[in-house]
């Protein structure tokens, strides 16, 4: 189906732990990448907001809309001038 690239196999052979861990030897690398992504999502501001600021705002908007549709909150429109 797919041919193995010799250059990719060559570079992958430099990762230690092949006999002991096998394929799982790459797990710490992906764990660290995930940690870095999470840190960026929490701490790096793009404009004035982080990823979690946007997430919390959208979640509260969804909850507010849900309460309006359930009739728990009366939605008052401003009067036309």
Structure description:
With about 80 residues, this protein is mainly alpha-helical. It is built from four helices and no strands. It is elongated and about 70 Å long. The relative contact order is 0.05.
Topology:
Blueprint: H1 6-12, H2 18-21, H3 27-43, H4 51-70
Summarize the structure.
The chain is mainly α.
How would you describe this structure in keywords?
0% strand; mainly alpha; elongated; 81 residues
The N- to C-terminal Cα distance equals 70 Å
User: What proportion of the residues is helical, as a percent range?
Assistant: 55-70%
Overall shape: it is elongated
Mean pLDDT: 85
Per DSSP, the total helix count is 4
What's the oligomerization state?
single chain
Total strands: 0
């Amino acid at each position: 189906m797919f041919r193995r690239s010799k250059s990719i196999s060559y570079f992958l052979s430099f990762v230690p732990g092949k006999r002991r861990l096998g394929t799982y030897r790459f797990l710490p690398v992906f764990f660290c990448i995930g940690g870095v992504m999470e840190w960026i999502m929490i701490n790096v501001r793009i404009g004035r907001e982080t990823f979690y600021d946007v997430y919390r705002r959208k979640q509260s908007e969804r909850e507010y809309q849900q309460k309006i549709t359930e009739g728990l909150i009366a939605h008052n429109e401003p009067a036309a001038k």
